[in-house]
Design a protein that fits this description.
With 125 residues, this protein is of the alpha+beta class. The protein has a single domain (2-124), classed as Ribosomal Protein L22, Chain A, CATH 3.90.470. It is 44% helix and 30% strand. It has five helices and five strands, in the order βααααββαββ. Strands 1-5-4 form a three-stranded antiparallel β-sheet. A two-stranded antiparallel sheet has the order 2-3. A hairpin with a 3-residue loop joins strand 4 (105-112) and strand 5 (116-124). Helix 1 (12-22) packs across helix 4 and helix 3 runs antiparallel to helix 4. The longest helix is centred in the middle third of the chain and has 19 residues, at 45-63. The protein is globular, with a radius of gyration of 14 Å.
Length: 125
């Protein structure tokens, strides 16, 4: 049974401008060390930062909440499994909220171009 669905579309140029303005201050507040390492190893890191931001926003929407509503962005970590597929690794309040809601599975899908990054998150009970 589907508990929640969230989707988000991020303008890659907007994320690039935020990173140019705030640098490590922004990156360190939003992304885990593993996410930062992953993105910075890519030819176009900003695209991957944008995709991860979209996944974090999508997860919040799937819970029916938004930014600043009890879950920190670093508590939502998007990493890749051994086959390269993305999955959400949740921490602290994000993990607690899923447990309290009885969510048994989290599905995430990403897509991106040079201009846009999008994510969909489906929570299953």
């Amino acid at each position: 049974m589907i508990y929640g669905v969230g989707t988000d579309l991020v303008d890659v140029i907007r994320i690039r401008k935020i990173i140019e303005k705030w640098g490590d201050r922004f990156i360190g507040r939003v992304y885990s060390h593993d996410e930062i390492d992953y993105c910075q190893k890519k030819a176009f890191p900003t695209i991957h930062f944008a995709a991860r931001f979209a996944a974090k926003e999508s997860f919040l929407k799937s819970l029916g909440i938004g930014l600043g509503m009890r879950v920190g962005l670093k508590d939502i970590e998007l990493i890749n499994n051994e086959q390269g597929s993305p999955f959400l690794k949740l921490h602290n309040r994000a993990e607690e909220m899923l447990r309290e809601a009885g969510v048994t599975a989290v599905h995430v899908s990403l897509t991106h171009t040079r201009n846009y990054a999008s994510a969909v998150v489906i929570l299953e009970k």
